[in-house]
Amino acid sequence: MIAKRPAPSPQAQVPARYAAVSRVLVRVLLLNLAVAVAKIVFGYASGAISILSDGFHSLTDAASNVAGLIGVRAAQRPPDEDHPYGHRKYETVAAAGVTIFLLLLVIEVVRNAFNHLTGRSAPHEISTASFIVMLVTVGVNLAVVAYESRESERLGSEVLLADAMQTRGDVWSSLTVIAALVGARLGVPMLDPLAALVVAGFIGYAGFQVARTTTGILSDRIVISDADLEQVVMSVPGIIGCEKIRTRGSADHVFLDLHVWMPPDMRLTEAHDLSHVVKDRLMTRYPQIADAVIHIEPPPRAT
Questions:
Q1: Under a CB-based contact definition with an 8 Å cutoff, are residues 109 and 196 in contact?
Q2: Please, is 149 exposed, middle or buried when counting C-beta atoms within 10 Å of its C-beta (0-12, 13-18, 19+)?
Q3: Smallest Cα–Cα separation from 99: which of 11, 161, 178?
Q4: CA atoms within 13 A of residue 8's CA, in its CB half-sphere
Q5: Spelled out in words, what is the top-level CATH class assigned to the domain 2-218?
Q6: Which of 107, 243, 127 is nearest to 173 (CA)?
Q7: How does pLDDT run across 121-179, given as a tens digit for each residue?
Q8: CB of 157 closer than 8 Å to CB of 18
Q9: CATH superfamily placement of domain 226-297
Q10: Annotated domain spans of the chain
Q11: What one-character DSSP code corresponds to residue 249?
């Protein structure tokens, strides 16, 4: 027999969380657009190709914000006939989409580095205003990274974490441009392509982290340790043992399946009630569990 209880009030909890994630993404989108526009406008006005390119890099941050908003909007829909487990993984898919922007950013940084190494990029005049624009935009990006990282931990949102990682990549990209400006000012333009290659490595590693997290969720990687869950189950009086513990989902939205052993002479109603005690204790200890399916069975016979 399977004891099953509906997930705890999704109408009251899920929309509030997704609304909070959306508010963060909208605020960050506006900041990213401001940063991108400032770099692009100044890049065109001054003829600083590196600043102009970095402005287009910043547009990838805004694009990832839009992708995140689309994913969150799809993920917040309640379970339906075709999606009995809900639409939570749409947010994970959106986070995975951010890795594409990170990949494009790596390619662009490497391409610019190659152009500088081969002398294809023409030198430009460096002004004090160039440093001011870049330093201000780096400051804005650092604030965005701190804000999104904090909110991603509070809300348990991998799409916010992925977006924060991409913005961190944009910070490194901007620092590369600043290094290039300093190098040009000191007469050492070689600093630009060398720094760019280092930045490409940092951005690529950030993309790897995002891909590893999202792949783990989409491939139903274990979320909560079996040993920890077994300890909670065995703390319930009357339970003889448990096995076949399986968890999947994201850090904030976990589905649990397990088998529990009960005395073979226990009445069905008593076993059913005891299974709910197990379930309640598990969901109290781990509030991120959206639902748990418990299979009741007698202990295995000794061979």
A1: yes
A2: middle
A3: 161
A4: 15
A5: mainly alpha
A6: 107
A7: 555 556 777 788 889 988 998 998 899 888 888 887 777 887 788 788 778 778 877 88
A8: no
A9: Cation efflux protein, cytoplasmic domain (3.30.70.1350)
A10: 2-218, 226-297
A11: E
